[in-house]
Specification:
Layout (H helix, E strand, L loop, with lengths): L1 E8 L4 E6 L2 H18 L15 E6 L4 E2 L2 E2 L6
Antiparallel strand pairs: 1-2, 1-3, 4-5
Length: about 80
Amino acid sequence: MKIYKAAFESWRFDFAAYGKTEAEAIATLKKGLIRHAAGYDIEPDWWHDYAGDIYTVEITLGACYRDNTPILGATE
């Protein structure tokens, strides 16, 4: 089974959200960034200038990842 991780790394925080599709993961991340803004009493669109820094990773459940890349090869 595959899921998607959307991530954004700001200078103070690392944000991540997950979804069944890439679009769902990104939408969930954006909602979280808006909730973060409310909690810190900052403009809800603070992250719009950095929207290009949002990235996604396809995740296979049961796989091991190193730096967002699956580790492939023989196992014991």
